[in-house]
Amino acid sequence: MERDNIISIAKSTLEIEISELEKLKNRIGDEFAKAVEIIHSAQGKLIVVGIGKSAHVGNKIVATLNSTGTPSQFLHASEAIHGDLGVIQKQDVVLCISNSGNSPEIATLVPFLKDYSSALIGMTGNKNSKLAEFSEIILDTHVDLEACPNKLAPTSSTTIQMALGDALAICLMELNNFRENDFAKFHPGGSLGKNLTARVEQFLSSQKPQVTEDSTVRDVIISISASSHGITVVTNEEKIIGVITDGDLRRMLLKGEDVTKVLAKDIMSANPKTIEKSVLAKEAMKVLKENNIGQLIVTENGKYFGIIDLHKLLDEGII
User: Fold this and answer.
1) How far apart are CA 191 and CA 307, in angstroms?
2) Exposed e or buried b for every residue in 297-310, given b needs 16+ CB within 10 A?
3) Which helix (H) or strand (E) holds 231?
4) Contact at 8 Å (CB) between 21 and 155?
5) What is the rounded average pLDDT for all residues in the chain?
6) Pairing of strands 295-300, 303-309
7) Tens of pLDDT along 5-41?
8) Among the listed residues 104, 94, 97, the one whose alpha carbon sits nearest the alpha carbon of residue 123
9) Hey, CA dihedral for 273, 277, 280, 282, is it positive or negative?
10) Strand 239-245 versus strand 295-300 pairing type
């Protein structure tokens, strides 16, 4: 197959799915709003049921809902009819996903889903199906055309299901006033959570190079060499008055000055960039980037507390 043909097929696939998404958007109305209201007002959790490709979609919807503040659990239809129905409590709402709405497992299951829960919401492409018959709310996901050329593999239909699940999650987020800090609570281990919650003090270097303003060049060199940052902080009774980098030392030597007479205060850069230890780490990264520097002096109530390094933040996923 020629490369142009491959590109043409890919574009055609996307055009079909985009067209079906446009139709879905135009169908969104009161039924969808009622579904959101029922889920939001539920005393229990949302149980999402599916089988086949709809099961994969259901798992993704559950993952999105859980991470955005709506407690959810996936229940596979074939497992449900063999003992797992016990997971459903009367205060729970069930969202059952099935394109046909008539698969054997779904047809067997829906009367029990309705009886065991506070409400059954059906997400189906067939409004005359068994699922639709037992559902209190029907979310219509029918498609006129699957992107599969044989019209066999679920393509447009699963795209529609996924998109509708996202729409539910976003609406529930807004109703729950779910914001960045809430999102971070459920993502503490990843870069998302770190960027939203991690503080500067969590990424402090174990090294704290420091000299006084009257330190000799020898003392400065020893201080810089003892750490991996290529920098030392000049202080006066814990007050930060400047910094000296290895670059400052090189520039001093190039001037041909008598190093025996040079003190730290003579070669330091005054008023260095600082940040309080309690500030979000992403704010430290912003300062580092904006000033094109590799290290930032960390303070506690204005006093020298430590150093935070650009590469450490990058390694930890802070952006």
Assistant:
1) 21
2) bbbeeeebbbbbbb
3) strand 231-236
4) no
5) 91
6) antiparallel
7) 999 999 999 999 999 999 999 999 999 999 999 999 9
8) 97
9) positive
10) unpaired
Measured between alpha carbons, how far is 121 from 277 in angstroms, rounded to an integer? 49
**Residue 159 identity (one-letter amino acid):** T
Evaluated on CA atoms 39, 40, 46, 50, the torsion sign reads: positive
- For residue 285, the surrounding DSSP H or E stretch is helix 281-291
Residue 297 pairs in a beta bridge with 274, 307
Length of the chain: 319
Q: Edge-to-edge strand order for the sheet containing 93-98? A: 72-76, 46-50, 93-98, 119-124, 137-140
Q: For residues 284 and 199, what is the distance between their CA atoms, to the nearest angstrom?
A: 9
Structure tokens of 270?
């005054």
Q: How far apart are CA 237 and CA 304, in angstroms?
A: 10
What is the DSSP pairing of strand 46-50 with strand 93-98?
parallel
Structure tokens at 65: 């809902």
- With a threshold of 0.90, does the pTM exceed it? no
